[in-house]
Amino acid sequence: MTWALAVTLLASMAGRATAVEGTGPIDVGTEPIFSRPSPVGDISYTPGRGLQVGDTGLTLGGYTDLVATRNEGEDAQFTLQDLSFLILLRLTERLHVFSELEIEDVLEVAADGHVGNPDDRFTVERLYLDYNGADAFSVRGGTFLTPVGRWNPRHAAPLVWTTSRPLVTKRPFDPNATGAMLYGSFFPDAGWVSYALYGQFAGLPAGNPPFEPANYAAGARFEFTPISNLSLGASYRAAQKFGRWSHLGGVDGLWQWSWLEVQGEAVVEEGRPGAQQWGLYLQAAVELVPRLYLVERYEYYDGPKPGVANLIASGLLYRLLSNTVFKIEYLAQASRSPYGVPGVKASLAVLF
Amino acid sequence: MLAPIALCLGLLAGLAAAEEPLPNVVVIVHPSRATTVSRDDVQRIYLKQRRFWEDGRAILPVNREYGSDVRKAFEHLVFADWKVPLSRYWNEQYFLGVLPPATLASDSAVRQYVAARPDAIGYIDARNLDDSVRVVLRLE
């Protein structure tokens, strides 16, 4: 009888294992949690997919990121680091307007309880008009994220594995550009190839952070996704700043398996005196138990300042819900460097 | 005395958790759309990577609601090679300004939607098929 009991319990457990197989974070982005009729159609809200305003084609959403930082030799502080609003307006099937408006460092609470917002900035991260003529041919005009590498065009806190950002994904180029872009996709036998060709010929909208953008820039990006879990990219950008041109080239890759994800980027910039720089990062995320990942990243950066950065980020990421992640990491310097401050960062990021 | 009861409870729990076979799924378009699509095409369309038909008209993909058997079967068959939850893909697309396909709550709603729109594509349980739509792919 004991063996029958054991077999039965095992069968029951096997059934349960089948039922929960592949269970990821609780998926909240599938159905609206709120829906009300209105004169313009149903107004509905789906977490992580935004508020859809009836049949107007308008969707309002965004993301936010609450960060706790304890750098070595400094007091701890809490910051509402990002409050970003995404606004999508579909005018027709082919024409839409998209914008990301961001308030950075909204609120800061020091270890002694002092509350302030010393560096709060309103930023027009993106504001553009898209015309989708065909799969292989779309046109974008306005302010967009510079398509260099993999991190910058997808930099939202709920999408990335660490609270800190690799230096090579932000220092060698302007994070956004104002101009025009031609982009599209081609479909070989399997997967797809995406491209973007762009030119920057206008200043950034008022209110952007006070980085000095290039006067002119032009670039290209290609991304090849031969199979669903592998993507390879290459980027080029030429930029004129202070009357001199510089040239940036980069390669990047992403490989995903059910419990493992490896991602990396390498960028080199040459040309303008004082702007030579190069760097790379390689990052791996391993699922330890469902929803909990160990994240390790090595990065190297040799920038305009004397000295190089050798940084190692070690941390954990927990997916509470499909739109909500908690991250904690320790950033260590393998050698003394003018870049990157060692310490602990933790954050809670929500896509809403 | 307790062993037979435990045996019955265990069997019941196992039976309750056992998966029912997923339905056969057919991918459907408007009868006027003379096109063929492969499983890869369907995947690209439902990821909104491919957005236009060969004649240049915008594709209108429609999903069944999350959790329905036919959607489970569709995703199992079309995204079998997908290694991460689709929610992560759509989180990224949402940030890029792309929303997932609209959903409808029944096979008959999907069939009527597709039958009324020459640019639509949908999928339903093969048992709910009728002549109002054209099958472009059988997923089994």
Structure, described:
In chain A, 5% of the residues lie in helices and 59% in strands. Chain A has 352 residues and is mostly beta strands. Chain A has a 16-stranded antiparallel β-barrel. Chain A is globular. By secondary structure, chain B is α/β, with parallel strands linked by helices. Chain B has helices at 2-17, 39-46, 69-78, 86-95, 107-116, and strands at residues 25-29, 60-64, 102-104, 120-125, 134-139. In chain B, strands 3-2-4-1-5 form a 5-stranded mixed β-sheet, sandwiched between helices. Chains A and B meet through helix 1, strand 4 and strand 8 of A and helix 1, helix 2 and helix 4 of B.
Query: What is the string of helix and strand elements of chain A?
Result: HEEEEEEEEEEEEEEEEEEEE
Biggest interface goes to: A-B, 55 and 44 residues
Strand order of the largest sheet of chain B: 3-2-4-1-5
What is Rg of chain A? Answer: 23 Å
Shape of chain B: globular
Order of helices and strands of chain B: HEHEHHEHEE
Largest β sheet strand count, sense and barrel closure of chain A: 16 strands, antiparallel, barrel
How much is the average pLDDT of chain A?
Answer: 88
Oligomer: heterodimer
Q: Determine the N-to-C terminus distance of chain A.
A: 54 Å
Structural class of chain B: alpha/beta
The unreliable regions of chain A are 1-23
Biggest pleated-sheet summary of chain B: 5 strands, mixed
- Amount of beta strand of chain A: over 45%
Question: Count the strands of chain B?
Answer: 5
Strands in their spatial order, largest beta sheet of chain A: 4-5-6-8-9-10-11-12-13-14-15-16-17-18-19-20
CA-based gyration radius of chain B: 19 Å
Task: List the main descriptive attributes of the protein structure presented here.
heterodimer, A: 352 residues, mainly beta, 16-stranded antiparallel beta barrel, 1 helix, globular, disordered N terminus, B: 140 residues, alpha/beta, five-stranded mixed beta sheet
